[in-house]
Amino acid sequence: MSTVQLSLFNDQPARLAGLNATLKASMQRAVASCGLSRAQVVDRMNALASDSGVKLTTGNARLLSPATFEKWLNPADREHLPSVLALEVFCLAVGSVQPLAQLLGLLGCGVMTAEDKRLRDYGHVCWETKRRRKAVRQLEMELEDDLGLANRHR
Prior knowledge:
mainly alpha
């Protein structure tokens, strides 16, 4: 008999099972903090989708309805989820990447802001500079050793 040890801190199956509700709650928080009403978010999403020539819903509906949007935000509704494209449009409409961060978090990834990327790039340059300095010191030591041997043989 094999046993599986579950962690209280890193329980991926439980996180996956709760992903829909977590995503929807994150979307609710993003709407609440964006300064727009839900109707305004729907209007903004429909405008973005129309300008881009993309469709936010399945079926014959050309526009996202407020009723469908409410279902997307309802954590208890397990049947209605936004598509990845609709989630992207949602994030653009509310100016938040937090719902995407929730999805990525399950995979151990995160979202980086432009500032985060600059700091990461700075860290890479610092690390590379340190690595090259070490290589230069190593070469200098080898040269000194080689030159010391050469001078002794004269």
